[in-house]
Amino acid sequence: MSSRQGGKMKPLKQKKKQQQDLDPEDIAFKEKQKADAAAKKALMANMKSGKPLVGGGIKKSGKK
């Protein structure tokens, strides 16, 4: 038998995250990941709106 019966249980406390010392390489890697995520988000938005993924496509010449 537990001392708590019914009601809402309190959430467990989590330890505070320690601040890590980041190298310049780590900072550059995180910025690259952010840029890739932003580019992917923009690409997905273009796909949803129906825009073509590539600009070229098949070019038809006027000559026969």
Write out key terms for the chains shown.
64 residues; mainly alpha; 1 helix
Can you walk through the features of this model?
This protein is mainly α and 64 residues long. The chain starts with 23 loop residues before the first helix and ends in a 15-residue tail after the last helix. The mean pLDDT is 79. It has one helix and no strands. The protein has a domain at 24-48. Helices cover 41% and strands 0% of the residues. Residues 1-38, 45-64 are annotated as: Disordered. InterPro entries: TMA7.
Stretches with pLDDT under 50, minimum 5 residues? none
Give me the oligomer status.
Answer: single chain
Radius of gyration equals: 26 Å
Percent helix, as a range, is: 40-55%
Give the CA-based shape.
elongated
SS class = mainly alpha
Quick structural gist:
The chain is mainly alpha-helical. The protein has one helix at 24-49.
Element layout with pairings:
Blueprint lengths: L23 H26 L15
